[in-house]
TrEMBL record:
It catalyses: Hydrolyzes free adenine bases from 7,8-dihydro-8-oxoguanine:adenine mismatched double-stranded DNA, leaving an apurinic site. Belongs to the Nth/MutY family. Binds 1 [4Fe-4S] cluster. It is an enzyme of class 3 (hydrolase). It comes from Flavobacterium laiguense. Residues 35-186 form the HhH-GPD domain. GO terms for biological process: base-excision repair; mismatch repair. This is Adenine DNA glycosylase. Its cofactor is [4Fe-4S] cluster. Adenine glycosylase active on G-A mispairs. MutY also corrects error-prone DNA synthesis past GO lesions which are due to the oxidatively damaged form of guanine: 7,8-dihydro-8-oxoguanine (8-oxo-dGTP). The gene is mutY. One of its GO terms (molecular function) is 8-oxo-7,8-dihydroguanine DNA N-glycosylase activity. Keywords: 4Fe-4S, DNA damage, DNA repair, Glycosidase, Hydrolase, Iron, Iron-sulfur, Metal-binding. It comes from the Bacteria.
């Protein structure tokens, strides 16, 4: 109880005024939790405000097109979250009458809702006694109790959830969950936390043992794959260009891009020129070719580093299925392509 009392006092004095905190409505709580997966609050908040303005209810979100949803999500990354969000909205709106399940077990059945998100919605909306376990909770508990459990192991979540459940006051699980996550986000941060001002500095085991920077233990390293993308930005006599939808599974599924040449390494002008002449624009004469960026733009995803070049191809005549620039700007693109369009075209 001492742990909770100290934590709760800190929380009431330091908590941020966030737009999804002043409600028990599961719709905005669900939206915020999906958006904040792998995303900082400062980055996610404008998207949350945009979504709740354009789609004020789950019915509005369900009735939108996937392209509308992806366009509004553009720049937030991890686009499978947006696709799952849309599908779940349709399930809740059309099969459940717009009412979210009111318990952890049933929330888990919805697409895109895992253990952490189900626990967050169940506790924040319905005050169910179920602990949230995210990176913040792993960090706070592993340091406070000096737990060397490898959090990359599947069994770790169960161990930390059991500990959090023990510490949780059963009368107010929602505030405990909010408080421990906020403490991890603001005070017990991953690198160089200011332990001198921490409310737990007299009782934190990791601080007493000088192990704060060693916890939590996480062994599994993500293997990063390098990929080399060459985007062909065509322009015909009408100043029309060509885009295509990424329909294959993988990154940026159902977003749009320019015609793509993917190579095994960074390639020079001659190589890309041969590719274009061999594989593209057979019906049009190529007037000129140049690269917009001589140095690759490095776009880092969690598991891939993309080395991206954009190549301008001027064509004689008109291209099949060409579209003008204003129309192009209405489509959802990966943020790196969106930024190129805004900056260069």
């Amino acid at each position: 109880m001492n742990f909770y009392n100290t934590l709760n006092k800190w929380y009431l004095q330091n908590k941020r005024d966030l737009p999804w905190r002043n409600t028990t409505d599961p719709y905005p709580i669900w939206l915020s939790e999906i958006m904040l997966q792998q995303t900082r609050v400062a980055q996610g908040t404008p998207y949350f405000l945009s979504f709740t303005t354009v789609f004020p209810t789950v019915f509005d979100l369900a009735n939108a097109s996937e392209e509308q949803v992806l366009k509004l999500w553009q720049g937030l990354g991890y686009y499978s979250r947006a696709r799952n969000l849309h599908k779940t909205a349709q399930t809740v709106a059309h099969e459940m009458g717009g009412i979210f399940p009111d318990n952890y077990t049933d929330l888990l059945k919805l697409k895109g809702i895992g253990e952490y998100t189900a626990a967050a919605i169940a506790s924040f909306s319905y005050n169910e006694c179920v602990p949230v376990v995210d990176g913040n909770v792993f960090r706070v508990l592993s340091r406070y109790f000096d737990l060397e459990t490898d959090i990359a192991q599947a069994s770790a979540k169960k161990e930390f959830a059991a500990l959090a459940f023990e510490l949780m006051p059963k009368a107010n699980p929602a505030q405990f969950n909010q408080a421990i996550m906020e403490f991890g986000a603001l005070q017990c941060v991953p690198k160089s936390p200011n332990c001198s001002i921490c409310v737990f500095n007299s009782s934190c085991a990791a601080l007493q043992k000088n192990k704060v920077d060693q916890l939590p233990v996480k062994s599994k390293k993500l293997k990063v794959r390098n990929r080399y993308f060459n985007y062909i930005v065509a322009e015909d006599d009408l100043q029309h260009t060509i885009i295509q939808k990424r329909t294959a599974k993988g990154i940026w599924h159902n977003l749009y891009e320019f015609p793509l040449i993917e190579t095994d390494t960074v390639e020079d002008f001659d190589c890309i020129s041969r590719h274009i002449q061999k594989d593209f624009f057979q019906e049009n004469e190529i007037v000129s070719l140049f690269e917009y960026n001589s140095e690759s733009i490095v776009h880092k995803l969690s598991h891939q580093h993309l080395y991206i070049k954009f190549w301008k191809v001027s064509l004689k005549g008109t291209v099949q299925n060409g579209i003008n620039l204003e129309t192009v700007k209405t489509f959802p693109f990966p943020i790196v392509i969106h930024n190129f369009i805004e900056d260069k075209l």
